[in-house]
Amino acid sequence: MTRLYFRFILVALALMLGTQIAVAGNKKLMTVNAAKVAAERAIVESVIGLKVRSRESVEDLVAQNVTVDAKTAAAIKGIEYTEAIYDPDKDIAQVVASIKLGRVSNIIGKNINFGGQTIQRVGFATSTPEMAGPLRALRAAELDAYKQLAKTIIGFKIDSNTTVEDFILKSDSIRARMAAAIYGAELVGYRWDENGDAYVKMRLKFGSIQDVLGRRLKYDGEVVEVEGIGAQHDDFNQASTDFGGDGNFRGRTQIREATIDVPVGPDAAPIVPPDAQGGGANLVPRQP
Predict the structure, then answer these.
(1) Which of 33, 133, 226, 231 can bridge 148 by disulfide, Cβ–Cβ 3.0-4.6 Å?
(2) Range 215-222, long-range pairs (CB < 8 A, 24+ positions)
């Protein structure tokens, strides 16, 4: 009876251990795969480009809202994963992806010959929603950087109405909007500050653009660099949920487990791709 009891205990422990290993393995693989997909999207946004639309409003000199929408779509092949790191304590994965490019048709149908250049981007992801805060802030900072690039090189439209009565400001309204296609933008670096807010530096070395006035302008490799900012927490919506928080890919994925400093300090190591010429085009219909 005692021997049978011990056998039962050993079988139960083996089953429990096997289940735990299976769950951990599944979670790790899902997180790493999500980071790979994020890195793939980053490659597409840099190489093919993306469409960015923003709307900003201020009423009576009080901030109202800032909305940035971005989308891209492409068929692409040849992406390789040069590094994958998984942090089991945070359930966060970091994947570096790269692609060697020849001739590419970008988001506005323009053919660009990259001449064998290699573009490299990084992606982060998690399977645990409570750990997604810093990663969401990083993506928000990335879109803010794209918005700034578009407003700088393409331009934007602004509408303003102000009324003063008897020396008193009665109403003041500012609306800014932009819609543009950006391609060839490079990631210079990224970091998080002590509050968990994310910062992304991007630059664009551009040749020809179509600005907000519909003019086609030619530049000789001029470079614009911006820094986008993204926050983890929404101070204006207290009801929202707060989100806290080496390998070589050849054939079968090899994943290195290590600590990933997310969020990190100002000395975060940047991912710097080689120089590539990009550009942009205005997407806002011109008024007759």
Answers:
(1) 226
(2) 221/277
